[in-house]
Every structure is written in structure tokens, then in C-alpha cells.
Amino acid sequence: MNRIAMHRSMVALLVSTSIGLAACSSTTASDGAPTADSPDLSVAANFYPVEWLVKEIGGDAISVTGLTPLGEEPHDLILNAQTREVIESSNVVFYLGSGFQPDVEKALAQRSQGPEAVDLLKAPGVVLLDAPADLGKESLAGNKDPHVWLDPTLMQAMAKEIAAVLSKAAPSQSGEFEKNRDALLASLGALDDELQGAIRGCLTNTIVTSHAAFNYLAQRYGLIQLAITGISPDDQPDPATLQQIAADAKAAGVTTVFFEEQLPRELSETVAMEIGARIDLLSALEFDPEEFIGPGQSYLTVMSDNGKRIAAGLQCA
Ligand SMILES: [Zn+2]
Questions:
Q1: Which of 10, 44, 129, 234 has the most CB atoms less than 10 A away?
Q2: Do both 150 and 222 map to the same domain?
Q3: Are residues 142 and 269 in the same domain?
Q4: DSSP state of 185
Q5: Domain that holds residue 273
């Protein structure tokens, strides 16, 4: 928690610096649209996976600012004055709706003018799963599961939507956006092939996860998720539920319990100890992996690593 608080203050500094830079370098018209002299778009993205997609597609033609401060839990994010200013001063805001970050949705609904707001959960080809019924009911409007980014094929659907929106907002750059989109679709397709190849012939198909982030990944690769906490990591189980999870995990032949890089490990360790399993990292990619896993890490490398850890943990062929 101390680490998160420390990062929060660093982020405030970074955000204010980037606002300063944006103010110096861009000449935007009073309605927020780019002028003929400045084709560069300023784009806001709600958290790491969306930010990564937008940067990959936008390249140098756009400036991207994340709304979730470094190290801060993205679920139920509360916007501060600086991130509200980022929303106001952006041309386009990409976000995930369905109650993932209600404060972001509220800020976008309240604006009288300003950025085009794009809910990527409504992108063509993104089919939402219901949130698990047992946990997290209160935190989700409509009870839909927002964790679509953990299925590379749904990342492809969102990438197509982002490229279409950016091309419409800056038509002179559309060739660049489409080229970047195609390269990204190929990388995500290769990742999907790799995961399909890694996660097959497993001794168990149950992944015990720290929070309920992996339903889309489980659906894509034929797995069953047994989550220790809810859709939001704040939805904690009571001792009886924890006992039940351990019993279910044991019955499913689980030998590895997964934890996440930025969440407390205690619950994963408790379940693992109860059933004599080991623990291993499985990233939900809700935090910038360059900051929290290591330099050079990105969505692609961490998902590839997730596939290897699942294959090892489930003893796949
Ligand atoms: Zn989550």
C-alpha cells in the first residue's frame, strides 16, 4: 500500500508535466478539435491495456495520456483534478464502460463539450460475459465482466475500433494508423496461436486466480476460472467461502494457485497451503508491466509469459 501511495504522488507529477507539455506543443481550437496546423491528436486512455493499444496504433501521430495513475488499482478509480483536466483537454477518450470505472463514465457523461468518448466494450466483435454471480454484484452496473483485454482476439476487435476512430479524427494520418493496426492485429494473432499451442493437453483445466479477471482468457483457451476474490479485488471472500474455494481447487486437481503482481498474496498463499499447491504469478495486466514486472515488458510479452505459467501450472502437454 505504501508503494501505491508513493507511486500516486509520482504520477501526479508525471501527469502535471504531461499536461504542461500538451499545453505548450499543441494548438487546438477552442472547441478542442485539432486545427489544420496541428494534426496531432491528444488522446486519453483509461488504463494500461487500452493505453498500450492506442499507442501501438497512434504511433508518433498522437499523444496518449493514461487516466489511471501509475500503480493505482484501476477498478473503481476515482479521478483527481489532473485526470479530469486530461479528459477535458483530450480530443478522444477511450475507456471501458459497464461499471469498470464509474467515475470515468460519470465525468464523460457530465461534460457539456469536449472529447469524443469511445466505450471499447461496445466495439464490434466484443461480446461481453456476465460477471460471476457470487461476488462483486454491488460494484458492477449491469453485472458485465469488463476484463476483455485478457483475450487477444478481443484486443484485436478493440484495435480495429481504435484505428477507425483515430482515422476519422485525423484523416490525414489514416494510412499510418491502418498500417500500425495491421501489424498489431498480426502480433495479437500470433500471440493467440502461441497460447492455443501452449494451453492444451493439460492435467487440469482449472485456474485458481487472485481476482476474477480471467473469464475471457478461460473461455478462449478452454479453461475454468476459480477466483479467490471478485470482479474487483476488493470483493473479499469470507472464511467459509475461502474453505470452499480450497476444496473445489483440490477436487479439480489444482497444483498451482496464481497471484497477481500488484495484489496482496496472502489469500493465494492460504489456498495454496491448504491444498499443498505452489503459487505462481499470473498477470491480469491492470498495471503497466514495465513498471511492475520489468523493463521491456509489454502486453505481448506478459501474455506470452502467462501462457507459459498456465501451461506449467496446469501440467499441459
Ligand atoms: Zn480486474
A1: 44
A2: no
A3: no
A4: H
A5: 201-313
- How many domains, the chain? 2
CA of 232 to the centre of ligand 1 (A): 5
Report the separation in Å between the CA atom of 17 and the middle of ligand 1, taken as the mean of its atom positions.
28
The 10s digit of each residue's pLDDT in 26-42 is 333 344 444 444 548 99
In the numeric block, the cell 473445489 is attached to 248
Question: 283 in a domain, yes or no?
Answer: yes
Which CATH number belongs to the domain containing residue 99 in this structure? 3.40.50.1980
User: What confidence tens digit (pLDDT) does each residue in 206-219 have?
Assistant: 999 999 999 999 99
**Ramachandran angles phi, psi of 200, nearest 5°:** -150, 155
Residues 252 and 145 reside in one and the same domain: no
Query: Coil, strand or helix: which one is 144?
Result: strand
Q: Which residue has the cell 496464481?
A: 258
Closest CA to 42 of 9, 86, 81: 86
Q: Calculate how far, in angstroms, residue 40's C-alpha sits from the geometric centre of ligand 1.
A: 32
Verdict on whether the full-model pTM lies above 0.90: no
- HSE, side-chain direction, 13 A CA sphere, residue 108: 23
